[in-house]
Amino acid sequence: MVGLTVDSLSVRFTLPDARVAAVSDVSFSLAPGECLALVGESGCGKSVLASALLGFLPGNAEVAGSAMLGPLDLLAASDQVLSQQVRGRQIGLVPQSPAAHLTPVRTARAQLDEALRHLHPAETRPSADEVAKRAGLQPADLDLYPHQLSGGMAQRVATALALAGDPWMIIADEPTTGLDRALVDALVAELRLLVADGRAVLLITHDLAAARRVADRIAVMYAGRLVEVGPAHEVLDSPRHPYARGLVDSLPDRAFTPIRGLPPVLTDLPPGCAFGPRCDRVTAECSDSPQLTVLNGHAVACHNPC
Amino acid sequence: MLTASGITAGYHPRRPVITDVDLTVESGATVGLAGPSGSGKSTLARVLSLLHKPFAGSVSIDGTVVGGFRYRAPRQYRTKIGVLFQQPRLSVDPRMTLRQVIAEPSRANGKPDRVDELSGLVALTPDLLARRAHEVSDGQLQRACLARALALRPAYLVCDEMTTMLDASTTAALVAVIRDYQSETGAGVLAISHDTVLLERWADRVEQMRTERMPTG
Protein backbone atom coordinates (compact mmCIF):
# COMPACT_ATOMS: atom_id res chain seq x y z
CA MET A 1 0.00 0.00 0.00
CA VAL A 2 1.26 3.43 -0.87
CA GLY A 3 1.96 5.91 1.88
CA LEU A 4 4.12 8.90 2.60
CA THR A 5 7.08 8.56 4.94
CA VAL A 6 9.02 11.71 5.71
CA ASP A 7 12.34 11.15 7.44
CA SER A 8 14.61 13.88 8.92
CA LEU A 9 13.43 16.50 6.46
CA SER A 10 15.27 19.82 6.77
CA VAL A 11 14.98 22.91 4.60
CA ARG A 12 17.45 25.80 4.72
CA PHE A 13 17.29 29.02 2.72
CA THR A 14 20.46 30.93 2.03
CA LEU A 15 20.01 34.69 1.95
CA PRO A 16 22.76 37.23 1.23
CA ASP A 17 23.29 37.92 4.92
CA ALA A 18 21.60 35.04 6.73
CA ARG A 19 20.61 31.41 6.70
CA VAL A 20 16.99 30.54 7.45
CA ALA A 21 16.34 27.25 9.25
CA ALA A 22 12.77 26.89 7.95
CA VAL A 23 12.24 23.18 8.62
CA SER A 24 14.51 21.12 10.88
CA ASP A 25 14.63 17.36 11.18
CA VAL A 26 10.93 16.65 10.61
CA SER A 27 9.79 13.02 10.45
CA PHE A 28 6.25 11.71 10.13
CA SER A 29 4.23 9.26 8.09
CA LEU A 30 0.82 9.44 6.53
CA ALA A 31 -1.29 6.52 5.32
CA PRO A 32 -4.42 6.50 3.13
CA GLY A 33 -7.64 7.00 5.08
CA GLU A 34 -5.95 9.19 7.65
CA CYS A 35 -5.94 12.92 8.33
CA LEU A 36 -2.90 14.52 9.92
CA ALA A 37 -3.13 18.16 10.96
CA LEU A 38 0.05 20.17 11.09
CA VAL A 39 -0.56 23.06 13.47
CA GLY A 40 1.63 25.95 14.51
CA GLU A 41 1.77 29.71 14.31
CA SER A 42 2.35 31.57 11.07
CA GLY A 43 5.98 31.53 10.02
CA CYS A 44 6.84 28.27 11.80
CA GLY A 45 7.60 26.44 8.55
CA LYS A 46 4.33 24.58 7.86
CA SER A 47 3.88 25.81 4.30
CA VAL A 48 7.57 25.36 3.48
CA LEU A 49 7.19 21.72 4.48
CA ALA A 50 4.27 21.31 2.04
CA SER A 51 6.20 23.07 -0.73
CA ALA A 52 9.18 20.76 -0.14
CA LEU A 53 6.98 17.68 -0.64
CA LEU A 54 5.75 19.00 -3.98
CA GLY A 55 9.07 20.40 -5.21
CA PHE A 56 7.82 24.00 -5.09
CA LEU A 57 10.78 25.46 -3.17
CA PRO A 58 12.69 28.41 -4.63
CA GLY A 59 16.21 27.98 -5.99
CA ASN A 60 18.04 29.12 -2.85
CA ALA A 61 16.60 26.27 -0.78
CA GLU A 62 18.74 23.37 0.41
CA VAL A 63 16.86 20.22 1.32
CA ALA A 64 18.09 17.29 3.37
CA GLY A 65 16.44 14.05 4.47
CA SER A 66 13.95 11.99 2.52
CA ALA A 67 10.22 11.88 1.76
CA MET A 68 9.35 8.46 0.37
CA LEU A 69 6.15 8.11 -1.62
CA GLY A 70 6.22 4.37 -2.23
CA PRO A 71 9.59 3.79 -3.90
CA LEU A 72 9.98 7.43 -5.02
CA ASP A 73 11.92 10.00 -2.96
CA LEU A 74 10.07 13.28 -3.52
CA LEU A 75 13.05 15.33 -2.38
CA ALA A 76 15.44 13.74 -4.88
CA ALA A 77 13.02 13.44 -7.82
CA SER A 78 13.44 15.69 -10.84
CA ASP A 79 10.89 18.33 -11.65
CA GLN A 80 9.83 16.27 -14.68
CA VAL A 81 9.08 13.21 -12.56
CA LEU A 82 7.21 15.33 -10.03
CA SER A 83 5.08 17.05 -12.64
CA GLN A 84 4.31 13.89 -14.62
CA GLN A 85 3.77 11.43 -11.78
CA VAL A 86 3.21 13.20 -8.50
CA ARG A 87 1.59 16.64 -8.59
CA GLY A 88 -2.13 16.35 -9.16
CA ARG A 89 -1.90 12.59 -9.78
CA GLN A 90 -0.69 11.34 -6.39
CA ILE A 91 -0.75 14.50 -4.29
CA GLY A 92 -3.31 17.23 -4.83
CA LEU A 93 -2.73 20.68 -3.36
CA VAL A 94 -5.48 22.98 -2.13
CA PRO A 95 -3.49 26.22 -1.97
CA GLN A 96 -3.76 28.96 0.62
CA SER A 97 -6.27 31.70 -0.42
CA PRO A 98 -7.75 29.65 -3.28
CA ALA A 99 -9.49 32.60 -4.95
CA ALA A 100 -6.08 34.09 -5.71
CA HIS A 101 -4.99 30.91 -7.48
CA LEU A 102 -7.83 30.80 -10.02
CA THR A 103 -7.46 32.50 -13.39
CA PRO A 104 -9.74 35.53 -13.14
CA VAL A 105 -10.75 35.61 -16.84
CA ARG A 106 -11.91 31.99 -17.13
CA THR A 107 -14.84 30.18 -15.56
CA ALA A 108 -14.30 27.51 -12.93
CA ARG A 109 -15.46 24.93 -15.48
CA ALA A 110 -12.87 25.98 -18.07
CA GLN A 111 -10.13 25.59 -15.48
CA LEU A 112 -11.39 22.25 -14.20
CA ASP A 113 -11.80 20.94 -17.78
CA GLU A 114 -8.23 21.93 -18.53
CA ALA A 115 -6.93 20.07 -15.49
CA LEU A 116 -8.96 16.96 -16.40
CA ARG A 117 -7.68 17.07 -20.00
CA HIS A 118 -4.10 17.02 -18.81
CA LEU A 119 -4.59 14.37 -16.16
CA HIS A 120 -6.75 11.75 -17.90
CA PRO A 121 -6.81 10.13 -21.36
CA ALA A 122 -10.03 10.92 -23.26
CA GLU A 123 -11.54 7.41 -22.83
CA THR A 124 -11.50 7.38 -19.05
CA ARG A 125 -11.84 11.10 -18.40
CA PRO A 126 -14.45 11.95 -15.74
CA SER A 127 -16.73 14.89 -16.45
CA ALA A 128 -16.17 18.18 -14.67
CA ASP A 129 -19.62 17.84 -13.07
CA GLU A 130 -18.72 14.53 -11.43
CA VAL A 131 -15.50 15.88 -9.96
CA ALA A 132 -17.22 19.07 -8.81
CA LYS A 133 -19.89 17.00 -7.04
CA ARG A 134 -17.22 15.25 -4.98
CA ALA A 135 -16.05 18.66 -3.79
CA GLY A 136 -19.59 19.70 -2.87
CA LEU A 137 -20.33 21.92 -5.89
CA GLN A 138 -23.42 22.06 -8.08
CA PRO A 139 -22.88 21.89 -11.88
CA ALA A 140 -24.25 25.44 -12.24
CA ASP A 141 -21.58 26.76 -9.84
CA LEU A 142 -18.88 25.77 -12.31
CA ASP A 143 -20.10 28.31 -14.86
CA LEU A 144 -19.17 31.21 -12.60
CA TYR A 145 -16.04 33.33 -12.89
CA PRO A 146 -13.73 33.53 -9.85
CA HIS A 147 -14.94 37.01 -8.85
CA GLN A 148 -18.50 35.64 -8.63
CA LEU A 149 -17.48 32.91 -6.19
CA SER A 150 -17.80 33.40 -2.46
CA GLY A 151 -14.89 32.36 -0.24
CA GLY A 152 -16.48 29.00 0.50
CA MET A 153 -17.22 28.29 -3.16
CA ALA A 154 -13.71 29.28 -4.28
CA GLN A 155 -12.49 26.83 -1.65
CA ARG A 156 -14.59 24.07 -3.18
CA VAL A 157 -13.43 24.88 -6.71
CA ALA A 158 -9.83 24.62 -5.48
CA THR A 159 -10.68 21.29 -3.85
CA ALA A 160 -12.27 20.07 -7.10
CA LEU A 161 -9.10 21.06 -8.98
CA ALA A 162 -6.99 19.18 -6.45
CA LEU A 163 -9.24 16.10 -6.87
CA ALA A 164 -9.17 16.25 -10.69
CA GLY A 165 -6.33 13.73 -11.00
CA ASP A 166 -7.84 11.41 -8.36
CA PRO A 167 -4.83 11.71 -6.03
CA TRP A 168 -4.69 9.50 -2.96
CA MET A 169 -3.36 12.37 -0.87
CA ILE A 170 -4.52 15.95 -0.47
CA ILE A 171 -2.49 18.75 1.07
CA ALA A 172 -4.79 21.54 2.25
CA ASP A 173 -2.86 24.69 3.19
CA GLU A 174 -4.80 26.89 5.67
CA PRO A 175 -8.18 26.03 4.10
CA THR A 176 -10.26 27.57 6.89
CA THR A 177 -8.76 31.07 6.83
CA GLY A 178 -11.44 33.68 6.25
CA LEU A 179 -14.32 31.20 6.24
CA ASP A 180 -17.17 31.67 8.69
CA ARG A 181 -18.36 28.98 11.06
CA ALA A 182 -20.92 27.40 8.75
CA LEU A 183 -18.40 27.20 5.90
CA VAL A 184 -15.74 25.73 8.19
CA ASP A 185 -18.25 23.08 9.27
CA ALA A 186 -18.99 22.27 5.63
CA LEU A 187 -15.29 22.09 4.83
CA VAL A 188 -14.63 19.84 7.80
CA ALA A 189 -17.37 17.49 6.58
CA GLU A 190 -15.91 17.49 3.06
CA LEU A 191 -12.42 16.70 4.31
CA ARG A 192 -13.79 13.86 6.45
CA LEU A 193 -15.56 12.49 3.33
CA LEU A 194 -12.24 12.46 1.48
CA VAL A 195 -10.68 10.55 4.36
CA ALA A 196 -13.60 8.09 4.48
CA ASP A 197 -13.06 7.66 0.74
CA GLY A 198 -9.60 6.24 1.51
CA ARG A 199 -7.57 9.38 0.81
CA ALA A 200 -4.91 10.82 3.06
CA VAL A 201 -5.28 14.47 4.07
CA LEU A 202 -2.44 16.64 5.32
CA LEU A 203 -4.17 19.66 6.84
CA ILE A 204 -1.95 22.65 7.46
CA THR A 205 -3.62 25.10 9.80
CA HIS A 206 -3.33 27.44 12.74
CA ASP A 207 -6.99 26.80 13.58
CA LEU A 208 -6.93 24.29 16.45
CA ALA A 209 -10.71 24.10 16.58
CA ALA A 210 -10.90 22.94 12.97
CA ALA A 211 -7.97 20.55 13.47
CA ARG A 212 -9.75 18.98 16.44
CA ARG A 213 -12.79 18.20 14.32
CA VAL A 214 -11.02 16.78 11.24
CA ALA A 215 -7.75 15.25 12.25
CA ASP A 216 -6.98 11.74 13.44
CA ARG A 217 -3.53 12.86 14.51
CA ILE A 218 -2.11 16.29 15.23
CA ALA A 219 1.50 17.33 14.75
CA VAL A 220 2.48 20.55 16.52
CA MET A 221 5.28 22.50 14.87
CA TYR A 222 7.38 25.17 16.54
CA ALA A 223 10.25 27.06 14.89
CA GLY A 224 10.59 24.49 12.11
CA ARG A 225 10.54 21.38 14.34
CA LEU A 226 7.81 18.96 15.29
CA VAL A 227 7.49 19.20 19.06
CA GLU A 228 4.53 16.88 19.60
CA VAL A 229 2.74 14.30 17.45
CA GLY A 230 -0.14 12.22 18.70
CA PRO A 231 -3.84 11.32 18.47
CA ALA A 232 -5.87 14.52 18.04
CA HIS A 233 -7.85 14.27 21.28
CA GLU A 234 -4.75 13.47 23.34
CA VAL A 235 -2.74 16.38 21.96
CA LEU A 236 -5.59 18.82 22.54
CA ASP A 237 -6.93 17.49 25.84
CA SER A 238 -3.67 16.53 27.53
CA PRO A 239 -0.80 18.14 25.63
CA ARG A 240 2.62 17.09 26.84
CA HIS A 241 4.90 19.69 25.25
CA PRO A 242 4.82 23.08 27.04
CA TYR A 243 4.32 24.86 23.69
CA ALA A 244 1.36 22.64 22.75
CA ARG A 245 -0.08 23.20 26.23
CA GLY A 246 0.37 26.97 25.84
CA LEU A 247 -1.34 26.89 22.45
CA VAL A 248 -4.30 24.93 23.82
CA ASP A 249 -4.52 27.21 26.87
CA SER A 250 -4.77 30.27 24.63
CA LEU A 251 -7.99 29.05 23.02
CA PRO A 252 -10.98 31.25 23.89
CA ASP A 253 -12.92 28.28 25.28
CA ARG A 254 -9.98 27.34 27.54
CA ALA A 255 -7.93 29.69 29.70
CA PHE A 256 -7.54 32.32 26.91
CA THR A 257 -4.05 33.20 28.16
CA PRO A 258 -1.28 33.81 25.61
CA ILE A 259 2.14 32.14 25.64
CA ARG A 260 4.59 34.74 26.92
CA GLY A 261 7.19 36.14 24.53
CA LEU A 262 7.46 35.93 20.77
CA PRO A 263 8.49 33.04 18.54
CA PRO A 264 12.20 33.10 17.61
CA VAL A 265 13.32 34.31 14.20
CA LEU A 266 14.28 31.38 12.00
CA THR A 267 17.58 33.03 11.04
CA ASP A 268 18.74 33.14 14.64
CA LEU A 269 17.38 30.18 16.57
CA PRO A 270 18.42 29.88 20.21
CA PRO A 271 20.76 26.95 20.95
CA GLY A 272 19.06 23.85 22.31
CA CYS A 273 15.29 23.76 22.58
CA ALA A 274 13.89 26.66 20.51
CA PHE A 275 11.00 27.05 22.96
CA GLY A 276 13.35 27.34 25.96
CA PRO A 277 13.31 31.15 26.22
CA ARG A 278 9.49 31.15 26.50
CA CYS A 279 9.12 28.01 28.59
CA ASP A 280 8.27 27.93 32.31
CA ARG A 281 9.64 24.41 32.75
CA VAL A 282 13.10 25.16 31.39
CA THR A 283 16.09 23.47 33.09
CA ALA A 284 19.82 23.13 32.38
CA GLU A 285 19.13 20.12 30.15
CA CYS A 286 17.20 22.32 27.71
CA SER A 287 20.40 23.80 26.27
CA ASP A 288 20.64 20.42 24.58
CA SER A 289 18.10 20.03 21.76
CA PRO A 290 15.47 17.42 22.77
CA GLN A 291 14.65 14.59 20.37
CA LEU A 292 11.13 13.55 19.46
CA THR A 293 10.56 10.39 21.51
CA VAL A 294 7.51 8.16 21.20
CA LEU A 295 5.58 6.78 24.14
CA ASN A 296 2.37 4.81 23.39
CA GLY A 297 1.93 6.40 19.98
CA HIS A 298 2.29 9.93 21.35
CA ALA A 299 5.61 11.59 20.53
CA VAL A 300 6.99 14.64 22.31
CA ALA A 301 10.28 16.52 22.03
CA CYS A 302 10.85 17.85 25.53
CA HIS A 303 13.18 17.09 28.44
CA ASN A 304 10.48 17.91 31.01
CA PRO A 305 7.12 17.13 29.40
CA CYS A 306 3.94 18.16 31.17
CA MET B 1 -21.09 56.34 22.99
CA LEU B 2 -20.43 55.46 19.34
CA THR B 3 -23.80 55.06 17.66
CA ALA B 4 -24.91 54.09 14.20
CA SER B 5 -28.55 54.83 13.52
CA GLY B 6 -30.63 53.80 10.55
CA ILE B 7 -27.58 52.95 8.47
CA THR B 8 -28.21 51.84 4.90
CA ALA B 9 -24.93 51.31 3.12
CA GLY B 10 -23.25 49.37 0.38
CA TYR B 11 -21.43 49.86 -2.86
CA HIS B 12 -24.39 50.40 -5.22
CA PRO B 13 -27.42 52.51 -4.21
CA ARG B 14 -29.88 49.98 -5.59
CA ARG B 15 -28.27 47.05 -3.81
CA PRO B 16 -27.38 48.12 -0.29
CA VAL B 17 -25.48 45.52 1.73
CA ILE B 18 -27.06 46.61 5.00
CA THR B 19 -30.45 48.27 5.41
CA ASP B 20 -31.58 50.41 8.34
CA VAL B 21 -29.11 49.04 10.88
CA ASP B 22 -28.70 50.43 14.41
CA LEU B 23 -25.76 49.65 16.63
CA THR B 24 -24.37 51.26 19.78
CA VAL B 25 -20.98 50.81 21.36
CA GLU B 26 -20.91 52.27 24.88
CA SER B 27 -17.72 53.63 26.41
CA GLY B 28 -15.95 50.94 28.37
CA ALA B 29 -18.03 48.16 26.80
CA THR B 30 -17.01 45.46 24.37
CA VAL B 31 -19.72 44.75 21.83
CA GLY B 32 -19.38 41.65 19.69
CA LEU B 33 -20.81 41.58 16.19
CA ALA B 34 -21.29 38.15 14.64
CA GLY B 35 -22.82 37.00 11.40
CA PRO B 36 -22.07 34.91 8.32
CA SER B 37 -19.77 35.99 5.49
CA GLY B 38 -21.40 38.58 3.28
CA SER B 39 -23.88 39.79 5.90
CA GLY B 40 -22.37 43.28 5.92
CA LYS B 41 -20.30 43.22 9.11
CA SER B 42 -17.31 44.84 7.46
CA THR B 43 -19.43 47.43 5.70
CA LEU B 44 -20.92 48.45 9.05
CA ALA B 45 -17.41 48.55 10.55
CA ARG B 46 -16.24 50.85 7.78
CA VAL B 47 -19.21 53.16 8.26
CA LEU B 48 -18.71 53.27 12.04
CA SER B 49 -15.03 54.11 11.61
CA LEU B 50 -15.97 56.90 9.18
CA LEU B 51 -14.22 55.19 6.29
CA HIS B 52 -17.32 54.61 4.15
CA LYS B 53 -20.19 57.00 3.47
CA PRO B 54 -23.59 55.36 4.02
CA PHE B 55 -26.54 55.99 1.65
CA ALA B 56 -28.73 56.84 4.63
CA GLY B 57 -28.43 57.10 8.39
CA SER B 58 -25.93 58.74 10.67
CA VAL B 59 -23.03 58.02 12.97
CA SER B 60 -22.73 59.93 16.20
CA ILE B 61 -19.85 60.08 18.64
CA ASP B 62 -20.65 60.95 22.25
CA GLY B 63 -23.95 62.46 21.16
CA THR B 64 -22.72 64.58 18.22
CA VAL B 65 -23.65 63.53 14.70
CA VAL B 66 -20.53 63.32 12.56
CA GLY B 67 -20.80 65.58 9.54
CA GLY B 68 -18.66 63.77 6.97
CA PHE B 69 -17.05 60.50 6.04
CA ARG B 70 -13.62 59.48 4.69
CA TYR B 71 -11.51 62.59 3.91
CA ARG B 72 -14.43 64.81 4.92
CA ALA B 73 -14.59 63.38 8.42
CA PRO B 74 -13.53 66.10 10.86
CA ARG B 75 -10.15 65.29 12.40
CA GLN B 76 -11.35 65.49 16.01
CA TYR B 77 -13.82 62.63 15.29
CA ARG B 78 -11.64 60.66 12.91
CA THR B 79 -8.88 60.38 15.49
CA LYS B 80 -11.31 59.19 18.18
CA ILE B 81 -11.74 55.86 16.42
CA GLY B 82 -8.99 53.31 15.95
CA VAL B 83 -9.43 50.52 13.40
CA LEU B 84 -7.90 47.08 13.03
CA PHE B 85 -8.44 45.16 9.82
CA GLN B 86 -8.56 41.46 9.00
CA GLN B 87 -5.47 41.36 6.82
CA PRO B 88 -2.57 43.27 8.33
CA ARG B 89 -0.59 42.79 5.11
CA LEU B 90 -3.09 44.80 3.13
CA SER B 91 -3.34 47.56 5.70
CA VAL B 92 0.25 48.73 6.00
CA ASP B 93 2.41 50.55 3.47
CA PRO B 94 5.01 47.95 2.37
CA ARG B 95 7.67 50.66 2.08
CA MET B 96 7.53 51.52 5.78
CA THR B 97 9.40 49.87 8.61
CA LEU B 98 7.24 48.80 11.55
CA ARG B 99 8.60 51.79 13.48
CA GLN B 100 7.29 54.13 10.76
CA VAL B 101 3.97 52.26 10.63
CA ILE B 102 3.43 52.81 14.36
CA ALA B 103 4.65 56.42 14.25
CA GLU B 104 2.46 57.40 11.28
CA PRO B 105 -0.73 58.51 13.13
CA SER B 106 1.31 60.68 15.53
CA ARG B 107 3.30 62.15 12.66
CA ALA B 108 0.18 62.90 10.60
CA ASN B 109 -1.39 64.70 13.56
CA GLY B 110 1.70 66.57 14.71
CA LYS B 111 1.82 64.68 18.01
CA PRO B 112 4.92 63.39 19.79
CA ASP B 113 6.05 59.95 18.77
CA ARG B 114 5.06 57.11 21.20
CA VAL B 115 6.65 54.21 19.32
CA ASP B 116 8.76 52.87 22.18
CA GLU B 117 5.89 52.87 24.66
CA LEU B 118 3.43 51.38 22.12
CA SER B 119 5.78 48.69 20.87
CA GLY B 120 6.41 47.60 24.45
CA LEU B 121 2.65 47.33 24.94
CA VAL B 122 2.27 44.91 22.01
CA ALA B 123 5.59 43.12 22.77
CA LEU B 124 7.46 44.04 19.59
CA THR B 125 11.23 43.99 20.01
CA PRO B 126 13.50 46.76 18.65
CA ASP B 127 14.96 44.51 15.93
CA LEU B 128 11.44 43.84 14.61
CA LEU B 129 10.70 47.58 14.51
CA ALA B 130 13.50 48.05 11.98
CA ARG B 131 11.93 45.56 9.57
CA ARG B 132 9.42 46.10 6.80
CA ALA B 133 6.10 44.28 6.51
CA HIS B 134 7.38 41.47 4.27
CA GLU B 135 10.07 40.59 6.81
CA VAL B 136 7.68 39.79 9.68
CA SER B 137 4.91 37.26 10.25
CA ASP B 138 1.18 38.06 10.12
CA GLY B 139 1.03 37.94 13.91
CA GLN B 140 3.91 40.39 14.33
CA LEU B 141 2.42 42.70 11.71
CA GLN B 142 -0.98 42.66 13.41
CA ARG B 143 0.78 43.59 16.66
CA ALA B 144 2.19 46.64 14.86
CA CYS B 145 -1.27 47.46 13.50
CA LEU B 146 -2.69 47.35 17.03
CA ALA B 147 0.06 49.68 18.25
CA ARG B 148 -0.77 52.01 15.34
CA ALA B 149 -4.50 51.90 16.16
CA LEU B 150 -3.78 52.86 19.78
CA ALA B 151 -1.28 55.62 18.91
CA LEU B 152 -3.77 58.50 19.21
CA ARG B 153 -5.46 57.01 22.31
CA PRO B 154 -8.80 56.44 20.53
CA ALA B 155 -12.00 56.48 22.56
CA TYR B 156 -13.34 53.65 20.39
CA LEU B 157 -11.66 50.72 18.74
CA VAL B 158 -13.21 48.87 15.80
CA CYS B 159 -11.70 45.40 15.28
CA ASP B 160 -12.88 43.91 12.01
CA GLU B 161 -12.01 40.19 12.07
CA MET B 162 -8.61 41.13 13.44
CA THR B 163 -7.84 37.59 14.61
CA THR B 164 -8.53 35.71 11.36
CA MET B 165 -4.89 35.46 10.31
CA LEU B 166 -3.59 34.83 13.83
CA ASP B 167 -2.81 31.70 15.80
CA ALA B 168 -4.51 31.09 19.14
CA SER B 169 -1.68 32.48 21.26
CA THR B 170 -1.35 35.76 19.33
CA THR B 171 -5.14 36.15 19.42
CA ALA B 172 -5.18 35.80 23.20
CA ALA B 173 -2.21 38.19 23.52
CA LEU B 174 -3.78 40.95 21.40
CA VAL B 175 -7.16 40.65 23.09
CA ALA B 176 -5.36 41.00 26.43
CA VAL B 177 -3.64 44.20 25.21
CA ILE B 178 -6.99 45.62 24.11
CA ARG B 179 -8.60 44.74 27.46
CA ASP B 180 -5.77 46.45 29.36
CA TYR B 181 -6.10 49.56 27.21
CA GLN B 182 -9.84 49.50 27.78
CA SER B 183 -9.62 49.24 31.57
CA GLU B 184 -7.08 52.08 31.60
CA THR B 185 -8.92 54.49 29.29
CA GLY B 186 -12.57 53.34 29.33
CA ALA B 187 -12.59 52.93 25.56
CA GLY B 188 -15.47 51.22 23.78
CA VAL B 189 -14.63 48.27 21.56
CA LEU B 190 -16.53 46.77 18.64
CA ALA B 191 -15.27 43.22 18.08
CA ILE B 192 -16.35 41.76 14.77
CA SER B 193 -15.77 38.07 14.17
CA HIS B 194 -17.43 34.96 12.84
CA ASP B 195 -15.80 33.04 15.68
CA THR B 196 -18.68 32.89 18.15
CA VAL B 197 -16.56 31.08 20.75
CA LEU B 198 -14.11 33.98 20.73
CA LEU B 199 -16.87 36.62 20.96
CA GLU B 200 -18.59 34.87 23.86
CA ARG B 201 -15.32 34.97 25.76
CA TRP B 202 -14.31 38.49 24.76
CA ALA B 203 -17.45 40.62 24.45
CA ASP B 204 -19.87 41.89 27.08
CA ARG B 205 -22.74 41.28 24.68
CA VAL B 206 -22.95 39.89 21.16
CA GLU B 207 -25.15 41.30 18.40
CA GLN B 208 -26.13 39.15 15.46
CA MET B 209 -25.90 40.60 11.97
CA ARG B 210 -28.71 39.29 9.86
CA THR B 211 -28.73 39.48 6.11
CA GLU B 212 -32.01 41.40 6.29
CA ARG B 213 -32.05 43.65 9.30
CA MET B 214 -30.45 43.78 12.67
CA PRO B 215 -32.38 44.31 15.90
CA THR B 216 -31.30 47.24 17.99
CA GLY B 217 -29.01 46.48 20.88
TrEMBL record, chain A:
Record's catalysed reaction(s): Ni(2+)(out) + ATP + H2O = Ni(2+)(in) + ADP + phosphate + H(+)
Broad EC category: translocase
Pfam families: ABC_tran, oligo_HPY
Entries under InterPro entries matching the protein: AAA+_ATPase, ABC_Ni/Peptide_Import, ABC_transporter-like_ATP-bd, Oligopep_ABC_C, P-loop_NTPase
Similarity remark: Belongs to the ABC transporter superfamily.
Chief place of localization: membrane
UniProt signal peptide: none
UniProt keyword annotation of Membrane present: yes
UniProt-annotated location(s): Cell membrane
Protein name: Nickel import system ATP-binding protein NikD
Quaternary structure and interacting proteins, as annotated: The complex is composed of two ATP-binding proteins (NikD and NikE), two transmembrane proteins (NikB and NikC) and a solute-binding protein (NikA).
UniProtKB/TrEMBL annotation, chain B:
Record's keyword annotation contains Heme: no
GO-annotated molecular function: ATP binding
This protein's name: Oligopeptide transport ATP-binding protein OppF
Keyword Nucleotide-binding attributed: yes
PROSITE patterns per record: ABC_TRANSPORTER_2
Highest taxon above the source species: Bacteria
Keywords on record: ATP-binding, Nucleotide-binding, Transport
Residue ranges the record marks as coiled coil: none
InterPro entries: AAA+_ATPase, ABC_transp_ATP-bind, ABC_transporter-like_ATP-bd, P-loop_NTPase
Annotated ranges, domain ABC transporter: 2-217
Entry similarity comment: Belongs to the ABC transporter superfamily.
